[in-house]
Amino acid sequence: MLPRPPTDPDVLVGHDTLDDAGVYRVRPDLALIQTVDFFTPIVDDGYEFGQIAAANAFSDVYAMGGTPKTALNLVCWPGELDTKILGAILTGGADKAHEAGCALVGGHSIQDEELKYGLAVTGTAHPDRIVTNATAGVGDQLYLTKPLGTGILTTALKQGQRSAVEIEAAVVAMKALNGPAMAVALDFGVTAATDITGFGLAGHAVQLADASGVTLQFEAAQLPLFADAEKLALAGCIPGGGEANERYYRPRVDVASTVSDGVMKVVFDPQTSGGLLLAIPGEDTDSVIAALQAVDCEAARHVGVVVTRDEPAVVVR
To answer: Who has the most CB within 10 Å: 90, 188, 239, 280?
Structure first.
């Protein structure tokens, strides 16, 4: 159990609802959004790893409806590795920060037995326009902006069951910033959002459902999956985080008998730099999808609806 900090009325979002980032109001028209994320390499190319790690860190700010402003590099570095690899990683992160319009202002490094890289990011937003995971309403439509299955595909890469070329679509998706998708969501009056990362779609959906006091109902046939993700999952290419997610969140998810085991393995799969799960009011789902696809979210799908709270928190049918 985390210690509870002293009450501060300017803490608009803390850790109570397991949201994507913390939010602190510094004046009536300005709030700071703060987040940090780093992890071990999931691809072999250092430059691409840097891009993915940066996009993943920025995603927490975007999920809150904010704009990344400054970032700090975080590096855990085994001394025996060629520093050219580190240069490639940092260049990838810097280039992604430039794309996001975010100033990379420094960082910190330590020696470690295992390479890790990521960013601490500060973003901004108006305090009245923060998007959280706690405000979805019954009748809101659910949208997902990237395909699922990155954990399975990168595990297949590590196991030698897929080549870097064969998982390139997933790498491209992981490098893509979620800012344009959130800009569209804000235009359509998004009520709640979260990005899909380590707890998988199932875990983050449970968190959003609990925080909002609703149930999320997904249509399995509408979920966007990377090619071969279901097949590879059934072949055993499941990361440890996927097994942990299934053990922990499976009791909170009601699965129809018509939904395949392979699809559910992907639903529990931990994502890196995954898409946004968006709750948006209104029945005109075609317009929302068209707008998302217009900003290069080609895989965006309408995947379900928010319904009155029931147990379990998430339904997949």
So the answer is: 280
